[in-house]
Every structure is written in C-alpha cells, then in structure tokens.
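Subject: IS1 family transposase structure
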Amino acid sequence: MVLEAVACKHCGQAQQVKRYGTTRAGTQRYRCFDCGRTFVKIYTHKARDPLVKAQITQLGLNGSGVRDTARVLGINRNTVSSHFKKK
Ligand SMILES: [Zn+2]
C-alpha cells in the first residue's frame, strides 16, 4: 500500500490530512484535521476549487468585470456574480 501526501487546499498543510469518505459522484474526499475543512483533489465543478475562488476575488479586486473574470477562468458568469454576492 502506498500512502501519498495530500496537501490541504485551504491551509496547505499535509501532515494531518486523512481520507474522509467519498462524494456522491464517488470521488475520494479528504479532511484536514488542522483547519477542519474538507476538500477533494480534482473538482468536477471548477468554481468549487478554493484556488479558483481566490482567483475570482483577486480578479475582482483588480478591476475585472464579471464577464471578464468568467471568460478568463472558464466558469459561468452567474457563478462569478453569486460569489461576489456572498462576499
Ligand atoms: Zn487545512
């Protein structure tokens, strides 16, 4: 059995990340016991990835519009719009 180190997508820490069941689609889910948050390695929906969420915020702060951001990141403009409504 080979154990691979998985880094947390939220805090970057790889020591206390453990397998945490599966998603409804059957993808392996992980939980970071340092920050307590869960994540999957490859997201089915791009906009769910914390790295893409951070990019949405960065592009918005740098003056990109909703449609610009959606085009650059390859996600739906309604997703970008709802991201800003939540913030
Ligand atoms: Zn973490």
